[in-house]
Design brief:
Keywords: Amino-acid transport, ATP-binding, Cell inner membrane, Cell membrane, Membrane, Nucleotide-binding, Transport. InterPro entries: AAA+_ATPase, ABC_ATPase_HisP-typ, ABC_transporter-like_ATP-bd, ABC_transporter-like_CS, Ectoine_EhuA, MetN_ABC_transporter-like, P-loop_NTPase. It holds the Pfam family ABC_tran. This is Arginine ABC transporter ATP-binding protein. With 274 residues, the protein is of the alpha/beta class. The protein has a domain of 66 residues. Helices cover 41% and strands 25% of the residues. The protein has 11 helices and 12 strands. The protein has a 6-stranded mixed β-sheet with strand order 8-9-10-3-11-12, with helices on both faces. A hairpin with a 2-residue loop joins strand 4 and strand 5. Helix 5 runs parallel beside helix 7 and helix 6 crosses helix 7. The radius of gyration is 20 Å and the shape is globular.
């Protein structure tokens, strides 16, 4: 209805919806002579769930790390929600971004790592509210209320006062997810979040991610070796090799009829190892 009354607002909404939530443009990352990401181009739509697969050393985790600005780019540019992350406009010229600008754009991104990285001296609730208190400036009351809601959402309402050492690996990883969500990100990054878990604990973490994807407007990039999860949950699968996207597509077609020989080799090896 509002679109009919104000065409300008409708046009603006359409433009925003068509703008990728995340855009990598010619992104290159080198460590000395080693090229880990090689002039990578990738657009991720709003609320799209992208699974990133490939052999070790193919650049998968590095992609997430440069997006989170944990590692600097060698070349190229990243945009988040229509804004340059690594650059900014100054006097009509695109220049390397200031730390303040990077922090402001990066605040739209949350990341969950392989290792849980929880503060061992803080309870699950304290871990969850630490950043909202000191980064977002939320009141203790509001942060605590939000933290309890998030821990309940990941199935840990009864573990708010438990320390990491009192939690299983799967429970610690779910606290890490709640902590990332506490910053109200638009983009969530998951870097092999089940790789440090026993197989029986993987399911509880993957179920939380499924719930997030189905119930919340979140763009997700997931580096994973869980092929079944990638097939069932992702909107798109990207196969990395030697710092490039060799093949990508909808999960059903990607897994049933991969076109590239390197993709076929990888999927055969994964299937034989299962």
């Amino acid at each position: 209805m509002k679109r009919d009354l104000d065409p300008a607002l409708g046009a603006a909404a359409d433009a925003e919806a068509s703008t990728p939530m995340v855009r990598f443009k010619g992104v290159t990352k080198r460590y000395g002579p080693l090229t880990v990401l090689d002039e990578l181009d990738l657009d991720v739509a709003r609320n799209e769930k992208v699974a990133i697969i490939g052999p070790s050393g193919s650049g998968k985790s590095t992609l997430l790390r440069v997006l989170m600005t944990l590692d600097p780019l060698t070349d190229g540019m990243i945009e988040v929600d229509g804004e340059p992350l690594t650059h900014q406009m100054r006097n009509g010229v695109l220049v390397p971004a200031s730390e303040r600008h990077v922090r402001q754009v990066r605040s739209k991104i949350g990341m969950v790592f392989q290792s849980f990285n929880l503060f061992p001296h803080m309870t699950a609730l304290q871990n969850t509210i630490e950043a909202p208190l000191f980064v977002l400036g939320m009141s203790k009351k509001d942060a605590t209320e939000r933290g309890r809601e998030l821990l309940s959402m990941v199935g840990l309402a009864d573990k708010c006062n438990h320390y990491p050492s009192q939690l299983s690996g799967g429970q610690q990883q779910r606290v890490a997810i709640a902590r990332a969500l506490a910053m109200r990100p638009k983009v969530m990054l998951f870097d092999e979040v089940t790789s440090a878990l026993d197989p029986e604990l993987c399911g509880e973490v993957l179920n939380v991610i499924r719930k997030l994807g189905h119930e919340h407007d979140l763009t997700m990039l997931m580096v994973t070796h869980q092929m079944g999860f990638a097939k069932d949950f992702a909107d798109r699968v990207c196969f990395f090799s030697q710092g490039k996207i060799v093949e990508q597509g909808a999960p059903r077609e990607f897994f049933s009829a991969p076109r590239h020989e390197r993709t076929q080799q990888f999927l055969r090896a994964v299937t034989e190892a299962m």
